[in-house]
Write a structure and sequence with these properties.
The protein is an alpha/beta fold and 261 residues long. Helix content is 41%, strand content 15%. The protein has a single domain, classed as TIM Barrel (Alpha-Beta Barrel), CATH 3.20.20. Helix 1 packs parallel to helix 2 and helix 4 crosses helix 5.
Length: 261
């Protein structure tokens, strides 16, 4: 939904977790929100399609990594497969990470030291992703992740890293998924981070810190960030990728209010 200045969405995977995913997508649609998804093989695509929901973002690959030839080949292969699924569902953005994530969000292949050669390979891989996106008519995003709490061992996890890579490729079909929950844990200074990243942002994601629940449950001044984003003329998507601290409908209303400016 667009409320005030932003197009609001929420991650269906993290809300009403005792309900089928298609029920959650329909509920978000009824409440006026776009729908974020994680990995598409976990779901019945026909049932999701039938909801008529607006799918805003979904994981854009199944396996692979940015840092080496073998990982890049697997990333590109599964990204193309996912692009076809994304077009079927009308997904607006297909999301990438520095490496594939496994159980609990931990990297399938942890990388503790990122070398100069890995940086160059990552940029090359993302250039190839941008070419693929152009061919398929889709948009990919690269998401920052936090290393101290949720995703230790993920290469290019910091927002500083994802910004460096996406700005170096500088292609309209490769954008940032700027996750402010992860950035608050790893880097802070969120308003200035948004300002630096603004030309390359495809989506902003939010959850409060600590706890990864809806805005207002932690330390971040989300309404202040919303006002700053409006002042920067950002009017794009803001997605709540957060658990509900209590009732999910209430959590979504709190999110809506925080980003109504």
């Amino acid at each position: 939904m667009t409320t005030g200045h932003f197009a609001l969405a929420a991650c269906a995977e993290m809300l009403w977790r005792d309900r089928p995913i298609e029920w959650r997508a329909s509920r978000l649609k009824d409440l006026g929100f776009g729908v974020g998804l994680w990995n598409w093989p976990d779901h019945d695509l026909a049932k999701l399609e039938a909801t008529g929901a607006t799918f805003t973002i979904m994981n854009g690959y199944l396996r692979g990594r940015l840092t080496d030839d073998v990982g890049a080949a697997e990333l590109l292969k599964t990204a193309r497969e996912t692009a076809h699924v994304g077009k079927r569902l009308g997904v607006q953005r297909l999301n990438l990470h520095g490496t594939g994530l496994g159980e609990g969000g931990l990297p399938v292949q942890p990388i503790e030291v990122v070398t100069g050669a890995m940086w160059l390979k990552a940029r090359d891989t993302l250039c190839r992703i941008a070419d693929l996106a152009e061919e398929e008519g889709v948009t990919f995003t690269l998401e920052n992740l936090n290393l101290p709490v949720d995703h230790p061992g993920v290469p290019f996890g910091r927002a500083e890293d994802t910004l460096a890579l996406v700005s170096a490729v500088n292609h309209p079909r490769l954008r940032l998924n700027l996750d402010l929950y992860h950035a608050q844990i790893g880097e802070g200074n969120l308003i200035e981070l948004c300002r630096k990243s603004l030309p390359w942002i495809g989506e902003i994601q939010v959850a409060d810190v600590p706890g990864r629940c809806e805005p207002g449950t932690g330390e971040v001044n989300w309404h202040g960030i919303a006002k700053a984003l409006k002042a920067m003329d950002y009017s794009g998507p803001v997605g709540m990728e957060a658990f509900a601290s209590g009732d999910a409908d209430t959590a979504l209303e709190v999110f809506r209010n925080a980003f109504t400016v």
